[in-house]
Amino acid sequence: MPDWFDQLDTAAQAQNHPTHRIVAGDGMLLVTERGARVMACAIPGVPGVEDNLFFHHESMLDPEKAANPFGGDRLWIAPEVGWYWPSLALAREDAGKHAATPPQIDPGEYLTDSASPVHVQMSTRIDLTDVRDGKKIELAVSRQVRAVEAPAGLPETLKCASFAITNVLLLRGGDDGAVACAWDILQVPPVGTLICPTTTDPKAVSEPTSYYEPFGDKHVARDANAVRFLIDSERKVKMGLKAEHTTGRMGYYRKLGDGSATLILRLFAPQPGEPYPDIPISADENQRIGGDVLQAYNHSDGGTSGFGEMEYHDPAVMVGHGPASRHGSSVTHILAGPDADVRAYGERLLGVPIKAIQ
What we know:
By secondary structure, this protein is mainly beta. The protein contains 6 helices and 20 strands. It has a single domain (3-350), classed as Beta-galactosidase, Chain A, domain 5. A 10-stranded antiparallel beta sheet has the order 5-6-7-8-20-16-15-10-13-12. Strands 4, 9, 11, 14, 17, 18 and 19 form a 7-stranded antiparallel beta sheet that branches. Strand 5 and strand 6 (119-129) form a beta hairpin. It starts with a helix and ends in an 8-residue tail after the last helix.
């Protein structure tokens, strides 16, 4: 494995955080028990592709600073408006200033239930109180990461790492009407374009949700088949699509040096009609469902920790209403190799042209 991969592993273990290595086709995944994060993906032997295919903060390489995971693929619990600020009023006053992730969500207190060279399963319990109405919800949470087969017809010129994630939420108790869902977030390094194929519903490309200021004229592009989202760490932008507007696929394309490129293709299961609770802070404070299933985020803080996110949500559990548990799965294929081959094969899997926002 590359030096940086071993350094990430060593730094986590130096903080007494168990790690797991998963062999995933041509690649290797590093999973940390702390935060239940898929911290890294390495695909060795591809010219121009020497670093982590996911984002990790540089502090994670330092054994003295790696106590709190920062990067990779993580499981958070939505809705964001419910518990990531002390109050909805403070969120609306200054979302960045007052944001605070509950420690029971991240990093959480995960324990490994089972592990092998091709899988790991971890679990924890999470109790939360919605800042909008004071309602409590109690959850048992499990998260499994496992290697899966590469998609059929993969060209010999491409290397591929493939894995599946299953997130399970089980209601343990709470107040009637309290709601929560699994929110899977994969952090990726800039610069690249997240391509989000859309359905034939005219509103799919005309009405993506803006979570902050207007999109502007650069970071969100739309055509008849997809919404494209620029990840460049230059401006804070967040975009969302409803379940009826996404095909359940998204791909993050990056053109790299030496004529190489990578594509992180994620397949998930939008379910129109099921409850999705994640909504902007500007929404009616009494709204509990009707939110987005796909989200994209471009982070900028003026420093060196710029990154982007490709996100999806599973349907919610709601105390006293509907199922007491939810199982949500996704499959991720990571392609690396010559740019033309990545684009040609990636278009077959994604279903739309792979075009970068310049």
